[in-house]
Amino acid sequence: MLPELKIAQLRHFVWVAELKGFHAAAEKAHRTQPAISLSIKDLENKLGESLFEKRNAKAANAELTPFGKHFMPQAKELIAHHDRIAQDMTLMANHKTGHLRLASVPSIASRMLPEILSKFIENAPDLHISFYDDNAGAVLNMVENQQVDFGIASLWHAHEHSDKTFTPIWEDQIGVVCRVDHPLARRKTLHWETLREHRLISNGTSRLLQDTEAEPLLGDSQFYISNMISLVAMLEAGMGITTLPWFAFPEESTKLKFIPLTSPSVIRQIGIVQMSNKSLTPAADSLVKFILEHAQQSE
Questions:
Q1: With pLDDT > 90 as the criterion, what percentage of the chain qualifies?
Q2: What structural domains does the chain harbor?
Q3: Strands 164-179 and 267-275
Q4: For residues 74 and 10, what is the distance between their CA atoms, to the nearest angstrom?
Q5: How does DSSP assign the chain, residue by residue?
Q6: If we measure between CA atoms, which residue out of 122, 111, 187 comes closest to residue 152?
Q7: Share of the chain above pLDDT 70, in %
Q8: I want to staple 272 with a disulfide (CB 3.0 to 4.6 A). Which of 19, 99, 167, 176 is the partner?
Q9: Where is the HTH lysR-type domain (predicted)?
């Protein structure tokens, strides 16, 4: 049976050898000299050989035996390997290293996450982050397939996702987006039936109208555009109107207008989505807590 070597005993051995004495090693270890002597003796018993020459009153310095000289670099290597692993695991537990994977719907990815992630990585310079930007359905699929540690999305029809945990964080209202010179742009609020008089473009968030009185609009849409950049281009060109959550509205556009849909009033909830039976990595758990704290401070 191989001996189980304790790191503390290896440190004591190296310190005695390098400092040339048990007393100096005891001071460095914040232990008594007898305690260091017992530690070295136990290590020698495990190895089956003496590490230091026998001392006498005239020999104050501790001298290594031939076996001790051979063991010295091995002991240092073991200590260094132990310390590297301990440091890596400590850093990972404190989300300062490792690899974090997350996915988010585009609206939160562009509106919220740039500030959140930039602050989060200030204390985690060695943390690698893979970030995926996609619609809610794709985000949920990535969570299910464990391609990401967690997702940020809305959980529509939550009863269909009993295997997931949803923590709501943000909410926004559904509205109508049209050109600033469109007849609807002069309105402050809108009823869903008013929209049927105009060309409708549906998109990835249009499903939020399901199970509401505005659901017939989904069948009225002449176009479906999934990509946000293309959708904005078509809206700015005057091809039609669409419904979008407020966070998804392109604020930088000078050609488009957002009008709240008040009949019905549809509110979208967005939050953290993760598998119920899977624990988060330390880095992912730290980011989730950081996002929650940031959201509370922003309220």
A1: 73
A2: 7-93 (1.10.10.10), 98-170+270-298 (3.40.190.10), 171-268 (3.40.190.10)
A3: antiparallel
A4: 10
A5: ------HHHHHHHHHHHHHTSHHHHHHHHTS-HHHHHHHHHHHHHHHTS-SBPPP-TT--S--B-HHHHHHHHHHHHHHHHHHHHHHHHHHHHTTSEEEEEEEE-HHHHHHTHHHHHHHHGGG-TEEEEEEEE--HHHHHHHHHTTSSSEEEE--SSGGG-TTEEEEEEEEEEEEEEEETTSGGGG-SSEEGGGGGGS-BEE-TTGGGGTTSTTTHHHHH-SEE---HHHHHHHHHTTS-BEEEEGGGS-TT-SSEEEEEEEETB-EEEEEEEEETT-PPPHHHHHHHHHHHHHHHHH-
A6: 111
A7: 97
A8: 167
A9: 5-65
Contact 252, 183 (CB under 8 A): no
Is the overall model pTM greater than 0.90, yes or no? no
Do the Cβ atoms of 181 and 165 come closer than 8 Å?
A: no
CA dist., res. 113 & res. 147, Å (int): 19
Q: Tell me the per-residue pLDDT of 84-122, one tens digit each, with 9 for 90 and over.
A: 888 778 777 776 667 889 999 999 999 999 999 999 998
